[in-house]
Amino acid sequence: MLSRVLFAPSRALRHQTESLRSFYSCSIRFDSLPTKDMPTATMSRGEFVRPRVADQAMVSRVETPIARPKMPEAVKEYGFEQAPNRYETWSESQRPKSEAMRGPRFEQMDPSSQPQSLSAMELINNYPLQFTQERVTSCDGGDGPLGHPRVFINLDKPEPKPCPYCGIRYQKIDHDHH
């Protein structure tokens, strides 16, 4: 048993000799590998090119192709409006639909089968003003679980004031008392 331990090389020693053996066998081949100056038929764009040694410093040139996002033809036909009832973006930081629907996520998408929801901003703008004679009014957003908490809205100013949750606008009717 003791002789088996003495004569068998350890794993660390075996690994060290294998790595040295592979280094010396590959170092001869390094000179024959293609470089940037010697293009071969098998070298394609984006492949690693062996760095050249210049003044004890390695100079590496790797060409990497850049994937450009493209818009599928189906998305171009889909339209550039944000919603069927709104043509511009909601905020300044929002990208238009023509720029947002690009890349691999939309490559195999059929936009004609996607839902085209209406813009809530335009729907609220088309909703008529709610006139009241009271100075303070409340909005509960409807009944049941689809509503929002009751909010009291101060109507002291003569302009319409929207509900902070649902956007419905309220305005006080001014009476001229002499």
UniProtKB/TrEMBL annotation:
Residue stretches making up the Zinc finger CHCC-type domain: 135-170
The protein's name in its UniProt record: Zinc finger CHCC-type domain-containing protein
InterPro entries registered for this protein in UniProt: Znf_CHCC
Skewed-composition ranges (Basic and acidic residues): 94-108
Stretches the record annotates as Disordered: 86-117
GO cellular component, one term: mitochondrion
Gene Ontology BP terms: mitochondrial electron transport, NADH to ubiquinone
